[in-house]
Amino acid sequence: MRETAPVREAPPVRGATPEIAPAPSRDNFDPTAKQRTEERLKAAESGQPMPPPTVTGKPAPDAAQLPVVSKREEFLAGTEPHSDGTWNNELIDPANARINVGSVGIGVLHASSARLGPKGILRFSMLGEYFNQDNFPVLNATNIRSSGTFAVSFQPFTWGELFIGYGAAANTNNRTAPNLIQALGDLTIGLKASKEFTRGLWAGADLRLLTFSAVGNQSVDRWAVGFQPRLIAAYDFRSITPKLPAILHLNLGFTIDNSGQLLQTAKPNASEEFALSLNRFNRFNFGLALEVPLPWVTPYLEYALGLPLGVPNGLLDGPNAAKVEISAAMPQSLGLGLKVTAVKDLTFLIGLDLGLIRSVGLGVPATPPWNFLVGASFNIDPFQRGETKIVETVRERTLEKKVAEAPKTGKVEGTVIDAETKKPIPGVIVAMVGAGLPPVASDAPSGKFLTHELPAGKVKLKASRDGYKEIEQELKIESGKNAKVELMLQSEVKKGIFDLVVTSKKKPITSTVAFVGPVQQAAGTSEGKADPVKVEVPAGTYTVNVTAPGYLAQTREVQIPAGGQMALAFDLAAAPKKLLVVFKEDKIEILQQVHFEFAKATILGDSFSLLDQVVDAIVSNNVKRIRVEGHTDNKGGKEKNQKLSEDRARSVADYLIAKGIDKSRLESVGYGDTRPVAPNLTARGRELNRRVEFIVVER
Predict the structure, then answer these.
(1) How far apart are CA 690 and CA 644, in angstroms?
(2) Is 90 exceeded by the pLDDT of residue 37?
(3) Same-domain status, 432 and 480
(4) What is the mean pLDDT of residues 208-212?
(5) Number of independent structural domains in the chain
(6) Which residues on neighbouring strands pair with residue 167, listed in sequence order?
(7) 189 and 237 fall within a common domain
(8) Residue 373, φ and ψ in degrees, nearest 5
């Protein structure tokens, strides 16, 4: 029996596990295998690198040659961060204008904003205030005030917001009894509705219910209640040009409250009214705010005015019994500050309110000369936001020599929207001009796209889709960053083509043709050129007016479909040497009567040329509306004459309509024998009274 020596285990080497080649089989005998195994064991014992193991006489694959799997986390389309940090954004990035809670509800600080964010966002805010001043609100008084407001806002719809705020304040003044007065439990509950009516312009309403806790008592039956409706609007100047990062907010409304009735045991002085924020008058409110969204901070400026209503004779009682004009004591302030938006979902605020009023009137809380504010707002989305997926990339690891580092790159991410409806457009092909890379397409339904990696520097994007005009936009890519862009496509109006021919007695003449409809457009024809003139216009209904020197003008209403082609021919009659129609500012005078069959409304043929001249006068002078009036003599009954005059006026109007005058430009009326122009005593007088008149109603 053959015996084999036991195999020794090599001592472990730090960071590696020794591998021992399998014993050779009879079918695959390697005479040097035993020698190599002993070399590997010795190397392991001495701590030296081991030769690679072999299988059937060939080296095993090295670890550096195995495939590598890399993983990265990406947001699913439509679930990107709703309030990402702005630190690395560009100056004109739309995300710089972060939407967050002001003092209560979405806004700047005091001004409510009509510009809402995506639905489903829950927002929290805290605001602290501090003020310390001597000789306020009256001489020899020292006032220290601090307050805090906690607010929650939820946006269940894209057009609506619900919010609630809780306020607490402490005021110390040596002219109040007691010196320390605390106001706890003031609540503000409200709802807001707003809509973007056109790009960059939002408008809506803000309704707030105000509750004020009782003084020295927490009984609900002694609370004061107020109501504060506002009309709100906001305009984003970046809709005009991205180089103007500014948003303007406007508030108009009223405040109705009875907080002045909270303190009923004694008449409060000016210091106590300020400490308790007691108002004895309802107020008209005006607010204006401007904020400038920059990449990591948003400066803002606010103006607020509260005009007391119902003040007797416009005069308030001053603390020293002197009368004070309402304009000198009404609350009026200017606020300025900064909102830091660099951190994801979190906004910090620091601000200063400057009082613009120094006089004090009883019944209206005094306006402090300054007030320091500091706050923070936090946004979260509890509904399907920020969903991510793991993307794995497999690549082969090779032992090739290191090559020079590739130039740094970035991507372009953006959204394509309709310029009219502001809705996303899916299926738009976005090409990187000159980059040598395949184009990408915007996805459905968000209209978003993400390009391939592009070299840092300038890149030109070209966006195209059927039914829209192709656009190009150039932007700059920074290495390692994604440039953001919003592309707006204009709907492409499909056009129709008229084959225009203008003749007289079948011979081409020189004329001017005006098309009035979805657009106003002019064309012309030339004498001797028989080929139709191609006129391309947007689809729709047009009034076509044809004029030519020496010929009577004509008009016609036509409709051209999108992509359609229509023959449009006019044959003009030569103007008579002696015109029987004279145009004046208020009427078209005819020098010959319109002839009808006896006692009927049928127009005789010898008047057709006269009425064609009336058509020429209407078209040549661009008369928008005209009234056809019918008149008779006094022969016959009143009712018969009235009906005959109406029928004849309508018959003339129908003739003008048949000649192309749009019926919306005409009206007809009969006056019977009630408006004679000559006595009905002679045949000539009666003839003059049997007439049709054309009155210009609108030019």
Answers:
(1) 11
(2) no
(3) yes
(4) 91
(5) 5
(6) 149, 186
(7) yes
(8) -130, 145
What token pair was written down for 135?
Answer: 């000789």
Amino acid code (one letter) for 59: P
Which pLDDT tens digit goes with each residue over 412-421?
Answer: 999 999 988 8
499 token code pair: 């084959």
**Together in a domain, 356 and 459:** no
Question: SS3 for 642?
Answer: helix
* Closest of 121, 123, 171 to residue 146, by C-alpha: 171
| Rounded Cα–Cα distance for residues 53 and 360 (Å) | 95
Over residues 454-489, the pLDDT tens digits come to 898 899 999 998 878 899 999 888 888 888 999 999
pLDDT for 265: 58
**Is 388 inside any structural domain?**
no
Query: Would you say the C-alpha torsion 86, 90, 91, 96 has a positive or negative sign?
Result: negative
> What is the distance between the alpha carbons of residues 297 and 343, in angstroms, rounded to a whole number?
10
Of 552, 571, 590, which residue is a domain's last? 571
Q: Strands 482-489 and 409-418, how do they pair?
A: parallel
> Domain end: 571, 600, 622, which one?
571
- Find the CATH number of the domain harbouring 458: 2.60.40.1120
Q: What is the dihedral of CA 395, 397, 402, 407, to 10 degrees?
A: 10
DSSP per-residue string spanning 225-269:
EEEEEEEEEEEEGGGT-TT---EEEEEEEEEEE-GGGS--SS---
Could you tell me which residues come within 8 angstroms of residue 385 by beta carbon, excluding any fewer than 6 positions away?
79, 81, 82, 120
Helical residues (DSSP H) of 638-696, grouped into ranges = 638-658, 683-689
- Concatenate the DSSP letters of all residues of 150-214 into one string: EEEEEEEETTEEEEEEEEEEEEEETTSSSSEEEEEEEEEEEEEEEEEEETTEEEEEEEEEEEEPP
Ramachandran category for residue 94: left, alpha or beta (phi over 0 → left; psi -120 to 50 → alpha): alpha
The CATH number linked to 566 is 2.60.40.10
Identify whether 87 is part of a domain. Answer: no
| 671 touches 607 (CB < 8 A) | no
> 689 in helix, strand or coil?
helix
**For residues 471 and 193, what is the distance between their CA atoms, to the nearest angstrom?**
35
Task: Give the CB-side neighbour count of residue 635, counting CA atoms within 13 A.
Answer: 11
Q: Which residue has the tokens 């004509």?
A: 554
* CA dihedral sign, ordered 507, 510, 515, 516: negative
* Domain interval for residue 417: 410-489
Going by pLDDT thresholds of 50, 70 and 90, the confidence category of residue 36 is: low
Supply the CATH number for residue 343's domain: 2.40.160.40
